[in-house]
Every structure is written in structure tokens, then in C-alpha cells.
Predict the 3D structure of the following.
Amino acid sequence: MDIFYISKKYIKKLIILLAIIIFFNILIYIRNDIDVPTFKYSSNYFINKTIVIDPGHGGVDGGAVSSGGLMEKDINLAIGKYLKELLDESGANCIITRDKDIELSKLSTIKDTRNRRDLNARVNIINHNKADLFISIHVNSFPKDKSIKGPIVFYYNQSEPSKELAKYIQKRLNTEFNKYYRYKKHNKSRGGTYYILKNTKSPGVIVENGFISNKEDYNLLKKDKFRYSIAYQIYMAIGEYLNG
Ligand SMILES: [Zn+2]
């Protein structure tokens, strides 16, 4: 009888322990669940605006790769397609530099490395279409320090409108990433002289959507819903920029 009594007590403790574990798992699940906002700009908001969406890399060029084999090019493409969908729905004349897993070097006529010709082709698409603005989509990686995380938006030093656009996007993406971070991180948009920024005639930015080398960012970027959320925040920021 004594043994039975002890085991009954033990079962009670076990049930309490299980309940605690389930409770914390539900908490973690709620914290990690990604809610997708539904507000969209009205259908005449982007009328007559030409916007070029440029998902970086593609084809033989995977871009940054995580230790588990997740490739930047696929994340960029997913975000880019979602962003195009949102802009199309809102009446923009939206052009995407690639809508499948390809690189663009064949479209360039300059004699240079494959990588440079690929970038040149993207610049040409932006310039030929006289884009009102462009968004180049990328994901960062810094394996030497895996604690580095968060989005960073780059603009061309000499372009005030690009700086403005970068600020709107940076602010929204900081908020979006911070929803899921254990410790908040507020990166600032940065001036840069990258080829695509320097050689385009339109205002535009390179959006680095977090670091694939960071565990927290990786866990977010692998989720399709989060990729949509990023696209949605960029879409909202473009609206703010055009309205500002
Ligand atoms: Zn990249």
C-alpha cells in the first residue's frame, strides 16, 4: 500500500510537470507564430508608379548559404514574388528582374566577370524602365560572428530619396524582426557604393533581410510566412515613402 501511495504522489507530480512543459511550449509557439497583416493600399495608390523588384542572385549563384544548405537566392525570390504580388494588387507597374531560379549575366553585353554582368543586367532593367524606385532583395551572412543579426538597408550615399526610402524600410523591418527576437536589435540604414546603387538612375535600396549565419534570423527566414511578412513591410514602407 505504501508503494502504491508513493507512486500516486509521483504521478501527480508528473502530471504537474507535464502541464508546465505543455504550457511553456504553447507560450513558445504563440511567440514564434507569425501573424500576417491584411491591410492593403487602395488600388489607385501606386498608379503610374514603375517599381523594379530585384531578387538577388539565382541559378549558379546561390548567394549566401546557411550551414544547413538554405540558399539566399531562394529566400530572395520568395520575398520578391510576394512583394510583386502586393504591388500588382495595388495598381503599380511592377517589374521583377527574375521570377525563377536563374542568374542574368546572359542579358548583359559588357565584357566582365559573370557576377558583374549579372549585376549589370539588373542595372539595365532598372534604367531602361525608368523606374520610380527599385528594391534589391538580399540576405546577409557573417559566419565569423554568428551573433550578428537583423535587417540592414543600404542606399547610395549621393541620393537623398534613396536615403529616405531606406529609412522607412529599415524602421519597419526592425519592428518586424524584433517581434520574434529574445533581445531587441535596432540596426540603422547605411550609405554604400555598391555597383547596383551607384550605376542606377532611380532611387533605390539594397535590403539585406537579416543574417542567414545567425540562428534566430535563420529560424525566421526559413519560414514562408515570415518571408511574406518581410515583403508586406517593404510594401508598406514603399507606400509611406511615396506618400511622404
Ligand atoms: Zn546577396
User: Anything to note?
Assistant: Residues 1-33 form one domain. Residues 30 and 172 are 21 Å apart (CA to CA).
